[in-house]
Each structure stands twice: as structure tokens, then as C-alpha cells.
Amino acid sequence: MKRPKGSRSKALLTVVIVLLVxxxxxxSQPAPTPTPTKAPAATPxxxxxxEAKPEAxxxxxxxxxxxxxAKASTPAAxEAKPEDKKLVKVRVAYSAVSGSQAPLWxxxxxxxxxxxxxxxxxxxxxxxxxxxxxxxxxxxxLAMGSAGAIVSAxxxxxxxILLASTNEALPFSLYVVPAIQRIEDLRGKxxxxxxxxxxxxxxTRQTLKKFxxxxxxxxxxxxMGGVPELRAGLATGAxxxxxxxxxxxxxxxxxxMRELVTFSDLNILYPTxxxxxxxxxxxxxxDTVKRFMEALMEGIAIAKTDRDYATKVISQYSKIDDxxxxxxxxxxxxxxxxxxxxxxxxxxMQVVVxxxxxxxxxxxEFKPEAFIDNSILKELDDSGFIKKLYGx
Length: 392
Prior knowledge:
- The protein has helices at residues 5-28, 34-42, 44-84, 102-109, 112-115, 128-136, 148-155, 199-210, 227-236, 248-254, 279-284, 286-305, 307-318, 323-337, 346-359, 375-382, 385-389; strands at residues 88-94, 118-124, 142-145, 160-169, 173-176, 190-193, 220-223, 241-244, 258-262, 269-278.
- By secondary structure, the chain is of the alpha/beta class.
- The protein has two domains: 84-169 and 270-389, D-Maltodextrin-Binding Protein, domain 2; 173-265, D-Maltodextrin-Binding Protein, domain 2, CATH 3.40.190.
- The strands form two sheets. Strands 2-1-3-10-4 form a five-stranded mixed sheet. A five-stranded mixed sheet has the order 7-6-8-5-9, sandwiched between helices.
- Helix 6 (128-136) crosses helix 7, helix 12 (286-305) crosses helix 13 (307-318) and helix 13 crosses helix 14.
- The relative contact order is 0.14.
- The protein has 17 helices and ten strands.
């Protein structure tokens, strides 16, 4: 059945209107548009993450390559530890160029102080009477010399004590110019000591008294400075006698001087080669002092067991090349007088205290134990440290 023309026209118009409305609606709706935009914006995040992962993976070998370098440096650091280890600086003085100082010299030349963590500044000071004030002021931390100056300084108000003594008996001899035949011939003459109050001063006075001569009355006793000055004084006639220990005693003999009295015959006790320190420094640095003593004990062991090396070092410090002199120095000081464990004895210190009391009566108030601290040495002895040095 045929529709009328008017109806067909209406239907066509309706379709056109519908299409136009759809087109308008499609152009005017912005809401769906962001959806595809959001998706691409979100997409780069995983994409970037995924791209970063390969980069990280590529970086890993680089990191691994760095790691071996770090590992490679580790052994070098370990090897460098002994050399790079911070050493404790310690200033040490010795008061005489004699065989009693041999362990100190050996320890220095063998680098034993470095072995035990100490950077030693070793200085020669001509007499213990000069060293004592330097120790009290803190300029010097440890010293090796005679006990007399240490006792005098402490009696006068200081705090110096002894940790060890490598020789307890005097190894000296009294030497005189050739014109002196008997000790009585020294009456009206002059004899020399290093310094008044030093061990050479004590030894000289004791010897004169034993033979009935009054020091400073019958025989003048003068301070010359050091052992080299004593030998020079004899050579020039400035003094007519002096006491010496090896190697200088043998050198004096070779220079034409006469050995008048041998101290070993007099049995005079007196601590020499004594290791001194202030209580204040010991209290604040006990570990450092213990390591110093370990090095010194090893120095004694080497001096006793390796004669050739020890005499070489004695020669270096004494400036003496005569083999006979060096051998006798080693024999007297190291073989005969030097103990493996050099404790300071009460008997030896009593002698020093009594002698000090002659010039300073206040010394009578002190017991010899007041000047002795064998505690570190006993630690090393009891622990077996010293025995091991001798292969025991």
C-alpha cells in the first residue's frame, strides 16, 4: 500500500533531524575524550619502570666491577696496618755513653719500639742530674741513667720513680795520670766527675773515703760535664784522676792512663742503667709504658744472645771501633752485670737513699720502696713474656 507523499516527506525529515542531533551530540561531549588521554599518560610509568630496570641491570655489572676493586684494596689496607698504625710519641733520654745503655740502643736500632707501637725520640743528655728536671717538667717522659739524681729529685718534692735497673753494681775503675802511683798521691790533686750528685760523683767520693781521703778537703772533686770531657781532662792535665766504666775505662787505659782501683774489688752497690719515670706520666700512660718496657726487655735479650750485633751497636753509639774494648764492654756490662729480668732492688736503693741523706737529711724520711715500682716488670715476668724472648 502506498504511503502518501506527505507522510514520506515527514519520515525523511525525521531521519535527517535524528542524524543532525546525533552529530551535534557527538561533537559536543568532551567527557569521553580524557579517557584515551589518561591511558597514554599512565602508560609511560610502567614503560619507564621497565626501561629503568634494564638500566639498573646494566649498572649492576659496573657495581660488581667496583666491588672487586674495593676487595682488591682490602689486602693493601691490611698490609699497611703495621706501617700506618699510629705510633705513640715518647721522648727518652740516656745519661751516659756506656755499656749499661746497650739494651736501649739495641731496641732503637732494631726498631723494637716501633714493633710495640712507640715512636721514640731518643736523646743523649750528659748527666742524670740534668735529666731529672726535664722529666719533672714533662719535656722527657722516660730516662735511663743513675738512681741518685732520681732520688734527689723526689726527696726535693718531685714524683720520679724507677721501673728497672740493668746494673746494680758499679762497673767502674779509678784511672789516674801516669804520675800518680798510689791513691795517697791524689792528696792535694783534683779528680773529675760528670756532674756533682751523679753516679760518677758518688763512685769517686766512695773510693776516696775507702782509702782515707776526704773529698773536697784532701782531694778536690770537680764537675766536668760528660764522660768525653773527663777523658779530655785527663789528657790535658786539667784533672789527675776520674772513674770510668767500659768502654771509656779501656780507652783511658789505651791512652796511657793508670788503673788505680777496680770497683769490683770494693763491692759497691749502686743502681745504674736505671729506667726512670714520673708517677704522673705512668698513671696516665701505663699501656704505653708497658710497651716501652716490652721493647727494652727484648733489647736486653738481643744484647745477651747476639754479641756481634750488640757490640756493633755499642760501637755506633760510643764511636769506638777497637774490638778489644767493645768485647770487654759487652763482657762486663751485658754478660756479667745485666740480669734478664732487671728488677730494682731494695738493697741497691737503700745505698742511694743513704748517700742522698748526706747532702739532704730529708732523704732519711723515705724508705727505698718509695722509689721503686717493679709492677710492670713483674707483669712481663709472670706472664712468660721475658722467658719467650730466650726461647723458654
